[in-house]
Amino acid sequence: MDVTLSQSTVGGRTQAPPSKSYTHRAILAAGYAEGATVSDPLISADTRATMRAVEAFGGSVDHDESANRLDIEGFGGDPETPADVIDCANSGTTIRLTTAAASLANGLTVLTGDESLRSRPQGPLLRAIDQLGGRAESTRSNGQAPLVVGGPITGGSAAIPGDVSSQFITALLMAGAVTDAGIDLTLQTELKSAPYVDITLEVLDEFGVSARKSKNGFTVSGYQEYDAGDGYTVPGDFSSISYLLAAGVLAARDGLTITGAYPSAQGDQAIVEIIREMGGDVSWDEDAGELTAAESSLSGVEVSVADTPDLLPTIAVLGAAADGTTTITDCEHVRYKETDRVSAMAETLRKMGASVTEERETLVIDGSASTLSGATLDGRADHRIIMSLAIAGLIADGETTITGAEHVDVSFPDFFERLSQLGATVSK
Ligand SMILES: O=C(O)C1=C[C@@H](OP(=O)(O)O)[C@@H](O)[C@H](O)C1
Ligand SMILES: C=C(OP(=O)(O)O)C(=O)O
């Protein structure tokens, strides 16, 4: 599906979509439990993949739409060997978190996904499972899915790099809690995307499971039981909020308010400070969970995305609209996502007339070079590339067409409807 946007003014109020990261973890944690209810879940292509995995391991997931709730029966820490291949579709979180769950089962599990997912790195997780006594292989021996994974692992120690994906650590901590011996992880390189492990520790805590940072990495003891008590409620998603905030500072003459924006462990909350540092008018009433952004003149910043990889496309677009130079550093791990997002943003923003320089770890956008012009842009089947380019389309001269725009269903299924309700000119 192609979507076309033209220069627009936006405004009004809109609710933040529920967090994808918290929803994935809550669904799987409910799977590791006897069951749980998960309120305000994100229902999207990626979270559906995690629901399918919980069902494949012997649980069940019922979506009560009127109550806006998932009623989940778990597999009680003891996943059965799936009767079929697990299709993780486009979701890195699903394949990493469920690969570790599969290492608890007696038999073998086959995990795969779409072309993008089958090109993303899984090697460090496979090697860690191997060190823990499980069997974990890439069918093509290239460290990528399809994967064949079996166990049962009983816990122990493993070493893992921290700069490829934090999801490997999340995966092993979640599985480690139901092993006999627990899991001790030693980081071989500095941890990137660290706040995502904090999100994991927060969700584990809500499910009565303790895991913690150790001197050299992370550790979780075994024989723990997942139990969410009265249930778990998912907070709003700050990666999704970043597009709405960017729309606000670029195109909301009378302001745009986002509700459901409460503080949590999400590193992507940093978008509020980044926009303020660029000169953007953003106010945040943390108690009310309300963020308001109004059209502002922005200037360039230097910002590290070591902890916040998913913000890179949003910051790149803000940089293209700002006066002066925006330098995004520490971005190598952003190349291992649904697509190489560093080169995708460099290519598309250049096509819109921005001046962009790309290095392995750095993306530099010179926003003062020109105003953006509409163009036909390849969304690279990547929800974050598509959503950030749509925001650029709100301020570009002429029409901006984004191909493959249906892929927003991964994290923000009604993104274009929302933009349109807020006043943007959007046609499909
Ligand atoms: O654990 C998570 O929920 C996520 C972790 C991050 O990935 P990496 O840890 O691979 O950087 C992030 O980019 C992804 O969107 C969601
Ligand atoms: C990279 C992302 O997710 P995942 O790793 O789960 O595919 C994302 O949502 O930007």
What does this structure look like?
By secondary structure, the chain is of the alpha/beta class. Helix content is 30%, strand content 23%. The protein is built from 12 helices and 24 strands. It has helices at residues 20-32, 45-56, 92-102, 123-131, 167-176, 194-206, 238-251, 270-277, 312-321, 341-351, 383-393, 415-421; strands at residues 3-6, 12-15, 35-39, 60-64, 69-73, 86-87, 108-112, 135-138, 147-150, 156-160, 183-187, 211-213, 217-220, 232-233, 256-259, 281-285, 290-294, 302-304, 325-329, 355-358, 363-366, 376-378, 400-403, 425-427. The structure holds shikimate-3-phosphate and phosphoenolpyruvate (PEP). Catalyzes the transfer of the enolpyruvyl moiety of phosphoenolpyruvate (PEP) to the 5-hydroxyl of shikimate-3-phosphate (S3P) to produce enolpyruvyl shikimate-3-phosphate and inorganic phosphate. It is an enzyme of class 2 (transferase).
- Overall CATH class of the largest domain: Alpha Beta
Uncertain stretches of 5 or more adjacent residues = none
Strand order of the largest sheet: 22-23-1-24
Q: Please, what is the oligomeric state?
A: single chain
The biggest beta sheet is recorded as:
4 strands, mixed
Helix content: 25-40%
**Count of extended strands:** 24
**Tally of separate helices:** 12
The small molecules bound here are: shikimate-3-phosphate, phosphoenolpyruvate
User: Which class of secondary structure composition applies to the elements?
Assistant: alpha/beta
